[in-house]
Amino acid sequence: MLVENFKVNSDKVQYSNDSIVSKYQYEHTEVTQSGDAVTVTPVSTEYEFKTDTRVPKLGVMLVGWGGNNGTTVTGGILANKHGITWMTKEGLRTPNYWGSLTQAATCRVGNMNGEEVYTPFKSLLPMVNPNDIELGGWDISGLNLADAMERAQVLDVELQRQLLPHMKDLVPLPGIYDPEFIAANQSERATNVIKGSKHEQVEAVRAQIRQFKQERGVDKIVVLWTANTERYSEVMEGVNDTADNLIKSIEKGEKEVSPSTLHAVACILEGVPFVNGSPQNTFVPGLIELAVKNNVLIGGDDFKSGQTKMKSVLVDFLVGAGIKPTSIVSYNHLGNNDGMNLSAPQTFRSKEISKSNVVDDMVASNSILYAPGEHPDHTVVIKYVPYVGDSKRAMDEYTSEIFMGGRNTIVMHNTCEDSLLAAPIILDLVILAELLTRIEVKKGGEADFQNFHPVAVLLSYLTKAPLVPEGTPVVNALAKQRAMLENIFRACIGLAPDNNMMLEFKN
Length: 507
Description:
Radius of gyration: 23 Å
Oligomer: single chain
């Protein structure tokens, strides 16, 4: 059974015209060791959550708006908003938001008369409707969105034809272009760029954000990077290691400050959340410090849509089942502009790092299987094959040790419509980022509510290389990431985690 709306009946939850306040007992454990004796102690801590239920008019600005992802997101929102249908050889198609956690997934809320009851994920807390989003953004290519959509070759031709009048007048703002950070093969697209020094570019982006907010009449803005993968920035003492040094480096025009970092700095100085959907290290230490100092949400890195999402499920399953993965070989080929840019070794290295670290926490969870320092052989290969376009092929081989010296090999072939998988994730990232700015929390006994840490760990489910605050464990296992997000939202409305014990049916 699916229920679109519900209300929690509890003396721990208070509803008002503009907020939901819940008192929540967080049950966890503390582990201590004295000599050889290890003690595990159950601990209960009271938290109070306050969620502002007033959903704002949201503006979303995409860096790389004219790329495959940007045009696909835009076309998808417009098709849903205007109810556009289109014919294909398989028949009539209708718009949807499938692939979106917030729009197309459900959560269990209980059982009624022996039937499981679910609610849409978006019904847990008030969220922005993607149809209401005001879209804009930047691109180093000056093509209007209709021509860029045709160039991308992602959406069906009949759908493109109907979207043309809605997208032909949408033109990206000039973007920041630095050929030192992306592949040389991108130079021909760079026809729409912000001139000037790095400091002038930051100030230009800040002015563009303010103008967009005023002209569109939005209450809030979230900026998301879906542009080219950059090479890794070198983290250098005195350049980008602290917030002050980063700002001074921008003013001096230091070459090791990337366009994505410049965009992020502009957003933080404007108090606008910034999400990085690519694998490069946009969030150098100085930028993270700047975000924390200004209490502005940042999140990333790198959309988790296809091969890596499957890997974070399969390795978690294998290790959890007591099977020991010893070799993981991942091969990809794709033909879109992302693949073209990744054909350069320096940009591929960013993607390789992002994809390779995804199994670390799962391996570390089982020292029965793995000795200290032991790790599966893990290789990632990406090749550019223009013919396949946006239809990325991902092939994986997982070899594991099993009972009594045996071997088990799993081979997987995954055809990923790259942008059609990424677009719903982009929507989830901006919708959840906005929602997180409306949630406050305090421990029992504290006087004041405060926002979550500016480094948005709760976006981990949607990213390959989750950005976390210093000292926070990195979790890559997909099921754990989703449970974390869902259970915190449940806590905001006074519901316990869905632990699947179902004790009410056990006696």
